[in-house]
Amino acid sequence: MSLAGMRQGDFSLRLFNVTPQDEQKFHCLVLSQSLGFQEVLSVVVTLHVAANFSVPVVSTPHSPSQDELTFTCTSINGYPRPNVYWINKTDNSLLDQALQNDTVFLNTRGLYDVVSVLRIARTPSVNIGCCIENVLLRQNLTVGSQTGNNIGERDKITENPVSTREKTEVTWSVLGVLCLLVAVAVAIGWVCRDRWLRRSYAGVWAVRPEPELTGHV
Question: What is the mean pLDDT of the chain?
Fold first, then answer.
């Protein structure tokens, strides 16, 4: 509390380094000295502690089977315990919560981490979002994850390491050719420079011959 503030009628109580353990009821009692310390105000205040959750991270979907897709949504360091929803962003409808498996636990800071796993039937195109709701702060964090027919193409690339190796070999070959061309260019430059220096050196002697070489012939 601030002494200067109290003199002006401000009896605010400031708490530093608040933790979830501070969430409790506080009894504010005001006495009047002029009235012989008679009670003039008594108020019970409930302190609610809240912390923003991190922006959810939605993993790239993978296929545990030919008929199913799995998404994972993660958010950390929030308080109080959140609500987790999966949304069909095509029509903004909520997906059945029976399709998701939520794991919410307290971390070492006393805050909540949440991991939600969604399993849905495989379709040609999926556009969904993960929503983390903090009711106390009226906070809704939603991140989308859209997939299409390129899922199958991505799986093919993953299952065919030969093509990746071939691309790597082509890349290194191109780099090798470029390095060789640079080396050749540098060598040609040095050769041209050496020839130019030699010509310059001979020219100087031709312009300024020594007397004993041009004397009595």
Answer: 74
Tokens of 126: 């999926």
Phi, psi of 162 (to 5 degrees): -65, -45
The span from the CA of 46 to the CA of 54, in Å, is 26
Question: Please, are residues 119 and 69 in contact by the beta-carbon 8 Å criterion?
Answer: yes
From residue 181, alpha-carbon distances to 9, 28, 188, 197 in Å are: 82, 83, 11, 24
Task: Specify the amino acid at residue 107.
Answer: N
- Report residue 86 as tokens: 């999966």
Query: Contact, 82 vs 128, CB < 8 A?
Result: no
Owner of token pair 């061309």: 181
pTM over 0.85: no
| Cα of 68 vs its chain's centroid, Å | 27
178: region left, alpha or beta (phi > 0 left; psi from -120 to 50 alpha): alpha
SS3 84: strand
